[in-house]
Structures are given as structure tokens and as C-alpha cells.
Specification:
By secondary structure, this protein is an alpha/beta fold. A 9-stranded mixed beta sheet has the order 7-1-2-6-3-5-4-8-9, sandwiched between helices.
Length: about 180
Amino acid sequence: MENLNHVVAALRQEEVIAYPTEAVFGVGCDPDSEQAVMKLLALKQRPVEKGLILIAANYEQLAPYIDDSQLTDEEKQRIFDSWPGPVTWVMPTKPGVPRFLTGQFDTIAVRVTDHPLVQALCLAFGKPLTSTSANLTGQEPGRTVAEVELQLGDRLAAILQGDTGGRENPSEIRDARTGQIFRQG
């Protein structure tokens, strides 16, 4: 619990943290803080145009960012049938969702995780986190706390201690409207 509180405090101070996800460790921050997102992008050496994934404990945490009125009932059902779980859906954004989250797109990639530590972190923080793999661009993503510390330890404010969900591949990414697979899970 002490580690979780430390990680939440770092998020509230607009810092970048790492945490275990379904397959690899992710790095994340407060999605509503441009300062925090810019720190994360600099740390990852990732261009803002690519956009970021949001990971949440439940659908309600994602509601401020997505415009599900643009989706049919069938499309929504397909999404809900896959959550919580390791499927990330690219969905239309609500007006005003900042470009530092969406990049060059008018959509945002979102996931309701089934990883209990990430669920606890998002619930304690009260909102979703940005989620991108815990590695420098071009390097292998960290799968253990030790691997994350080796690659990024001096650049992170905190690491949520724990194990990944044991999946081999990062989450599948699909288009909510068409079902097209952008990244195989």
C-alpha cells in the first residue's frame, strides 16, 4: 500500500511513473497534465504526433475522453465484450481532448485493464493513466521491475512494484468502428 501511495503522489505531482500491465511494464502519467505528458514523451523519445493510449480501471474513467455517441450499439457491445482485458480500442474523441494525447488523430486509443495492480492504481488516482511501453524507443520493453530500473530508473519518479499479467504480447489495438486490427495481441 505504501508503494501505491508513493506512485499516486508522484502522479499528482505531474511526474512520470512505471507500472506492470498485462504483458510488459508501461510508463504513464496524468493524461490531463500537458507538463507530465511532455515529460513522458521526452523520456520515451516519442513524437507527439503518434498519440498515446489511456488505460483505466473502468469505462467511466474513459468517458471524459471518448465520444461514444459516434459508435453504434453493436460497436459498443464488441468493446464491452472485450473489457476488462488486453484489447485497446481506437475510439472517437470528445471535442477539446488535447492534441498532446491524440497526436495527429481525431481518435484516442483506450483500454479497461484487467490487471489488478493497474486497476488499483487508476482507482486510487481517480482517473486513467497514459500508457506506453516502459522502454526507450528502439529498445525492448521492460517485463520486470529490474529491467525497467536498468533502462529508465533514473528518469522515473516511481515504479509500482509487481508482476506483469504474464501475456507474451502487448495489448491488441483495434478500430472501434471497423474492427480493423492495428496491432496483433
